[in-house]
Amino acid sequence: MAKTLDMSWLMLRVVGRMVTGQSSVNNLSGPISIAETAGKTAGYGLSAFLKFLAVVSISLGVLNLLPIPVLDGGHLLYFLIEGIKGSPLSERAQEQGMKIGIALLAGLMTLAFYVDISRLLG
User: Fold this and answer.
1) In the predicted model, what is the mean pLDDT of residues 10-28?
2) What are 29-53's pLDDT values in tens digits?
3) Residue 91 to residues 30, 81, 98, 100: CA-CA distances in angstroms?
4) What is the DSSP letter of 21?
5) Among 2, 36, 41, 87, which residue's beta carbon has the most beta carbons within 10 A?
6) Is the Cβ–Cβ distance between 104 and 73 less than 8 Å?
7) Contacts of 85 (CB under 8 A, 6+ apart)
8) Residue 113 DSSP symbol
9) Residue 4 pLDDT more than 90?
10) Residues of 69-95 as b/e, b for ≥16 C-beta within 10 angstroms?
C-alpha cells in the first residue's frame, strides 16, 4: 500500500512538473513505448513484468482522477461544485466542460503518440 501511495504521489509530481514546464514532455509514454517496455520487462521475468503492469495501472488510475470533466476526477469536481453551490451545474456548463475535457485528452493522446513516434524515429 505504501509503495502504491508513493508511486501515486510521484506521478502527480511529474504531471505537475510537466504542466508547469519544469519537466520535459519526453517523460510521457504512449502505447508504442508501453508495448516496448512491456516486452522488455517480460524478458526479465514475471516479477519485473508484474511490477511494470502495476506502474502502468497506477499511472492510469492517477490520470483518471485528474479533475478533467470526462474522467472520474471531473465527475468528482462536478459533485464538489454542486455541494458548494447547492445545485448542479447547468447542462450547458457541463457540456462545455465535457468538450474541454475531450479536447484535453485528445491533445494529451496526440502528444503521447508524437513523443513515441519521435523516440522511435530517433
Assistant:
1) 85
2) 889 999 999 999 999 999 999 999 9
3) 33, 14, 10, 14
4) T
5) 41
6) no
7) none
8) H
9) no
10) bbbebbeebbeeeeeeeeeebeeeeee
